[in-house]
Amino acid sequence: MPWDRNQMAARAAQELEDGMYVNLGIGIPTLVANYVGDKDITLQSENGMLGMGPFPFEGEEDADLINAGKQTITELSRTSYFDSATSFAMIRGGKIAAAVLGAMEVDEEGDLANWMIPGVLVKGMGGAMDLVAGVGRVIVVMDHTNKHGKSKLLKKCTLPLTGKKVVNRIITNLGVLDVVDGGLKIIEIAEGVTEDEIRASTEANIVN
Questions:
Q1: How far is Cα 177 from Cα 14, in angstroms, rounded to an integer?
Q2: How distant, in Å, are the alpha carbons of 57, 99, 185 from that of 24?
Q3: Residue 46 bears catalytic tag
Q4: pTM for the whole thing?
């Protein structure tokens, strides 16, 4: 069976190492906070929080504690708060080791489109462009195909780009792929999924 949202988030959490400062994007990436476990990871939110904890249990929510996606979260004993200018100085200054982001499209060169669909009203790009330009490693977590069954891993992105050649690793419901010279390389396959299924669901070139 393909991975569900929580399994994808748990797999993304395996990418994080002790001592890392990590930004989590909106959507599935926010669930990564629930799977950090005992690792010494400091999660950063661009709305001005360093040291995010996991999501609160029902009834324990604090409406004043939210992430960039306006979801209620928890704080840790070491949590600190600051303004957005300081937050983006961390990102633009290369202080954040990795970002785990969602995506609408990723192509075989590592181009990322994750902020808008033409004709659909959006508030803006948010911190996505700064993140892909400023962090050390970009990990994308997303479904392998869209709701119509068409691949989201393309030869060339068709939507407006967030960044060019910025994605390092892609974790989908079917498995894990890296952006390498010449295309994408399958690193891991979800239990119950076959390599043929991944290839059939991927428009981008897959490198052996």
A1: 14
A2: 20, 6, 24
A3: yes
A4: 0.94
Taken as a whole, the chain contains a residue count of: 208
Which residue, among 40, 38, 35, 33, has the nearest Cα to 18 in the 3D structure?
Answer: 40
Query: Rounded to an integer, what distance in angstroms lies between the CA atom of residue 170 and that of residue 7?
Result: 14
Complete domains list, the chain, with CATH = 5-200 (3.40.1080.10)
Beta pairing, strands 105-107 & 112-113:
antiparallel
Tokens 């050390």 found at: 136
| Of residues 107, 102, 203, 204, the one with CA closest to residue 164 | 107
E strands present in 26-181: 42-45, 49-52, 75-81, 98-101, 105-107, 112-113, 137-141, 153-154, 169-171, 175-180
Catalytic residue among 46, 105, 108, 109: 46
**Which tokens in the block code for residue 145?**
């195909």
Dihedral over alpha carbons 11, 147, 194, 114 (to 10 degrees): -40
Does the structure show a pLDDT above 90 at 72?
A: yes
Average pLDDT over every residue of 16-41: 94
Separation of alpha carbons 30 and 15, rounded Å: 15
Tokens of 136: 């050390």
Q: Is the pLDDT score of 126 beyond 80? A: no
